[in-house]
Amino acid sequence: MASTSSSTYPAGGTWFDTLKRSFVDVPVDTSNDNAIDTTAFLEAAESLTTLFDVLGSIAFNPVKNDMLGNIKKVRDRQLAARSESENIQSLVINELKTKKHTATEGLLWLVRGLDFTAQALRHNVSNSSDELSASFRAAYTNTLKPHHSFLVKPVFSAAMSATPYKKDFYAKLSADEAKGQQALDTWLSALEQRVSILTKFQTRKEAKW
């Protein structure tokens, strides 16, 4: 396990040090209705998908690919209308004005995926005796499962059962358990905050199609 762990993160560091962008570094403009910087948010979401590589099973490939596909939908809109897409909320509002909703729908599914990941990790942090499989199954039931078709549910359910043992997963985050837990909590809190902002935004009339 030591050799596997050491290749996942820099010596003396954590897996979070390898991310191109952490959710901690995604700007939120509290003076502008909690506007979330689009480029930074998409980079952080993209970075999060590498967590599924740490989980170490090809069963998570559909989960990862689904999130990457939705990131692409949002980014394509950003690139097509840069001046109207500096923050996530304006991207949605301006796309809907064109009577299209490709990126808006992609964002809806992306936020659900981020919420799923956040809830799984928070459940595991808060329930120290639970294995990852229990935490991921609980999070799936609360977030994605109600929106999935009967064809998709088995694919995602298989991934929930393919999680590694808890001790092996946390060893891949850092050789120093305390440092890894601290880094996880900081990153997870930032992720939860941004998911909460966007989830609330998506309930508003101007964010619906």
Q: How would you describe this structure to a colleague?
A:
The chain starts with a helix and ends in an 8-residue tail after the last helix. It has helices at 2-6, 38-48, 51-55, 61-80, 88-97, 102-126, 132-142, 153-160, 166-173, 177-201; strands at 28-29, 35-36. The protein is globular and about 50 Å long. The chain has a two-stranded antiparallel ribbon. It contains 10 helices and 2 strands. The chain is an all-alpha fold and 209 residues long.
Radius of gyration: 17 Å
Please summarize the sheet with the most strands. Answer: 2 strands, antiparallel
Note the overall shape.
globular
Distance between the termini: 49 Å
Number of strands: 2
Strand content: under 5%
Helix content: 55-70%
Short description:
61% of the residues lie in helices and 2% in strands. The chain has helices at 2-6, 38-48, 51-55, 61-80, 88-97, 102-126, 132-142, 153-160, 166-173, 177-201; strands at 28-29, 35-36.
Main attributes?
209 residues, mainly alpha, two-stranded antiparallel sheet, 2 strands, 2% strand, globular, disordered N terminus
